[in-house]
User: Fold this.
Amino acid sequence: MTLAYPLTDPRTARPTSALADAFERHGVRMIYARNEEIYAQDDEVELLYRVVKGVVRTSRLTVDGRRQVGDFYYAGDIFGLEPGPDHRFAAEALDDCEILVVRRSAVRAFAGDAALDRAILEAQRLEMERLQEHVVMLGRKSARERVASFLMSIAQRQSDEHADLAMGRQDMADYLGLTIETVSRMLTQLQGDAIVEFPSSRRFQVRKWTALEALAA
Assistant:
């Protein structure tokens, strides 16, 4: 899974400060169209990325062609901080994205080896926490609880009354370890129980926060 964390995360204040300064001073703004590849699986790590606008999806194809979605990254998230020399997951723009890109060598020259190494170590710790939560969800939660957890995480990121889904049902299924039919059925059930309401396929509103939180927990 690609390492990523938000620049505003107080737990990463010191290493993130150096990265933030490097992005502001040396970063180049790049525009990626919907579904455009940002980097490929197994590409050499040369650049670091910060989402300015849009949503980025990371995914990996297995040898038999199956896809696992790693995670989704939003405005303010840094991604591409791999501990090794190659990207284990590919990254694609889910919608039209604006990405701030900086060369890893430029970060080292600006912030120093120690600052970059601290940032990578801290990113590994935070990513391990995310991975552990994902493993628990896949291993211990029912399909209904997985979908509820996913919707809760999306709703908590957005301040509007309605939350927008940048990803489609197949992306959700590949992230949650479910079939697209199961995801659609769980969404229909949650809407039928008036826990969430979908005025359109890519927009929803939480109607019963307590009920959704109970399922997500």
